[in-house]
Amino acid sequence: MDRNQIAKWFKEPSKMANKYSLHAIYFCTGCGIIEVPPVITARWDAERFGVIPVATPRQANLFLITGYVSVKTLKAIIRTYEQMYEPKYTVAFGSCPINGGMYWDSYNTIKHLDKYIPIDGWIAGCMPRPEAIFVAVTHLWTLIDKGMANGYERYKKYYRAYRRNQELALGKLEWPPLYPIGEHTEGGECD
Amino acid sequence: MIEQLKRELEATFKGVSVTSEADRRITVVVDPLQALALLRFFKDRGFSHLALLSAVDLIDKHAFELVYVLTSYVEDTGEDAVPGELILVVKSMIPRDKPTFKSVISIYPNAEPYEREIHELFGIHFDGHPRLTPLFLERQYPIPPFRKDFDTRRYVEDVFGSIPAIGDEEG
Question: Has the ipTM of the complex gone over 0.85?
Fold first, then answer.
């Protein structure tokens, strides 16, 4: 730990603790998962950065989506994301969640993942190197420091729009809304 | 070995064409009425493994071609025409406007997921299949998406392009 960050630790201890203990859940949707074993094992050793893999979404606060997202996978991604505790951060890995990547004209692949769940950071590349994950993690620290990694707040705020987009892609969802929708917001989309 | 099998096939089935493009690989083209009998014949000869069941959309010929790839676990003993290392490709064309075929589950039980997949992606109906329910896809498609006349780009524009981005409307 950096000594000149002690002031930050006294000011916002919970934020700093979140920042330096990112418990990651990996969603092995595509080819990107092949980059994750070297990242979490001794070669690149993600624990230097406080990133360790956990078993379930209920223990995680970093969600890595590695690779393309098919329509069926999107359903699992939404359910995983909604089970995570706040504050939670999402990083999409590779070019496929950004705009479809090489599956841009596929009949069954989601093109823009941020239409369905909020994404805090993107790692471009096909595939990105393992170092890119660490660049993303350090960048995510900066975003958390500045309060810009606020995807979970946006999800709460615009939940109606997110839920509507999810239903447009998946049809009727078989789980209830995470946040209340519809009663007290007649005119506007949010709050 | 191949010659013997070819002679036997042509003596048993009518209108079967047997070719061999590569070593150890035999392609048998058969009309759909005889296909099941042919598969049964091969299974009795030791080709007990259906390695693959696939379909090809030949839109110019107005037909679907079903491709059965058969192999055998039995070692080649030499004399009794049990071809251990042979790969058999059985092809059969069915008309495109009436895409139904008999299920081969009674002969090869592992054809069950293959037939579900082909039913879902090509829209070919298999008579006698116990449950032709969706296997991979979540959405309803206007026509089955692996057919050649399915316009994926227009479908992507219509469906995924029409979903609005989140930031736009709330501004």
Answer: no
